[in-house]
Amino acid sequence: MRSPLCKCTSEAKSSEVAAQCGPVWFGLLDKQANPTCLLYVNACQPPRFKMETRLLLIQNWISQRLKDFKNQLKRQEPEQQVPDVLQHEKDPGENSENEMEMEQEHGEQEQQVPQVPEQQRHAQHANEEDGLPHGMEEEDEEPVDLEPVQDVPVRRTARSTRRSSHQVAGVRRKRPRREVPRQNANLPSTGHTTQPEDTNNTPGSYVHEVKTVFDKEDAEEIEDNLETEAGLAKFLKKRLICMVVGKKKIDNPRIKIVRQYEARLPKNCQEAYQGQRKGSSWLQNQIRHPGVPIKKFSSADLGKFGQSKEGWSVQSIFKSETPNHVWVLFVGWDSTTMELKTTAEIKKTAPDMVKKFEKKNEFWKEVEKMYKEKGLFDSLEIGFAREKFVTEEMANDPSNRYWLYQDQSFFHAMIQENYGLGAVQYVCLKEEMVPPPKFTYTPHNIMREYVLEKCKAISDDYQKKLEEAFKKGARELKGNGGGCETPHTCKCKIVFETLFRRNPQQPRWNRLRLKHNADGLLEFPVEFDRNNQRIVIECTDACGCSMRCPCRPLQQVRRNPVIIFYNFLMNQFGLKTGVSLREGDLIFEYTGELIWELDGQKRRGRNSSYDADFKVLGDGFVISSWKIGNVARFMSHSCNPNAIFIEVYVQQNPGDPVIPRIAVYALRDIKNGEDVTIAYWDKDDMPLIGDDKCLCAPDCPRYLVRVEDDDDDDRK
């Protein structure tokens, strides 16, 4: 069965190609395949059938013949020793069952740099030399979620990536896990490792580099029902508040301790894990993008791994020129295996993907309208066409940078969705696409042990002061003054008055507390000064309200999509909202690595343009999104911004340490497709002469403030 993208309709055409290739082609067909075999689908396109590919096919054929000869010797002379010339070929059948299970259940595979020729290797056989240990590609025991078949299926059943009661698909039962020791795959890594946990665990230290690790346990499927109160409560109860790099254990299930911080696959990505382990398509442009696999299944793998009783997880849906049809890209499979399916079928089997597809179309309509109004559409017409329709040329080229954007969008979106947040999409409309940004994505803050100890010490001090205030029980401190569900028992006002109202550095000036109304919108004063120190106090369980209280937005599930958009005028990535926002809406949190520095250690050796400092929740705390962060790191500067940084006091449970957090709120209404901007500097501090012109408006006369180390900026 041919790939749906293959245009060869007859055996005669394939035979004609074979004749052009000479005896080499016909020799390879001997006892292996007929001219229409999927393994040789790329040979149907003579310009792409290069000499390097022929040599690789010959190497495959010779390797297979050596294995057959070895097996024949074993059958004829069981006691005879195999000749030394064959010792280097390891038979997959020699692997023990325990070894197969170990690789299957606990194999931890790091991202590696393949030694490949310049010619793309997306149609190679799984046994070629691709940098993986012998026997890893062909195992005696097949993957749990992939069922090898002899015949390639005509159509594959699509299903949502996240299991849901709204889709037509059954949840498979998990196979009992066997207790076997972990085994290191000993594969080279494409990313630099972090510093050892015992090194630089002192004020000012931070994670320098992150390596990527692929583990099956990370990618396992989960099913969270957030539509019911019980399901939502269960999800929020186990959602992490932070991750700590260290060795000490902590009795809090919502704080995860790791010896070394690593980029890993998100949940519900089992097919991506299997594609990384067994796929034959090398995606060379993806090397060193943290958490993004560099291997996938290709059309050459359909014969062995192209069928599943439970359907295939959909990565993305693309508009088709055929009415009432869409192109479907599957998780773990490259673009050559996309299938054309009816919209009705996808609505039935993967309804959530259809909703995302419809939201994406609405976004592009608004963006196209904005660019036409600005007179910029003509210069980006090719980029807009690329986002509207996937051409056959793009589909047949898995190395196209467009697919790297799609992969990074998918895996970062899965991280967001697993944390209860909205989808993420990376977009570049330039005709020659620039590489997508390289950083490790996190929906929550990362920190070292010394930072957590500092947070716990500050939290203990807060607790003592609050206990004294509660004992006094002053009437004027009772109530919230905002939109809390239980205003008479709310403790937010007491927390602010006791801990944060007075500014120790400037006693004459009181800090500003911003409050949410009953709709969950933050209310700004009529004469609001962005330079004032400000804080939001979110409700806790001690207030007596539920998790749906409008004064707990940072603790809740939020599904607002965002788009990281390459701004060709500024030559860097910016940020657009995928939905319309109201004034006072919480847009997202600013996450990264939480660092605590002494004055003499400020910004030691890192790009400080990604730093967000704290003034209220503790002087010396900094969130750096230089190497690790989320979408908020891409906000551009504007002298007239539509968003603002606000420090947030969050302590969901009384036993949780207070982790300093920063939220981004809308200062005014923001349209769908509009840039989300923030003022990194005050207008008065920006020079009128400099190197980098401020492009927030055509008539802006100011220049950006030069920051040390801002040349190392992946937003450009």
TrEMBL record:
It comes from the Eukaryota. Residues 183-204 have a biased composition (Polar residues). InterPro entries: H3K9_Histone-Lys_N-MTase, SET_dom, SET_dom_sf. Residues 156-177 have a biased composition (Basic residues). Keywords: Chromosome, Metal-binding, Methyltransferase, S-adenosyl-L-methionine, Transferase, Zinc. Residues 119-136 have a biased composition (Basic and acidic residues). The keyword S-adenosyl-L-methionine applies. Its main location: nucleus. This is SET domain-containing protein. It comes from Caenorhabditis remanei.
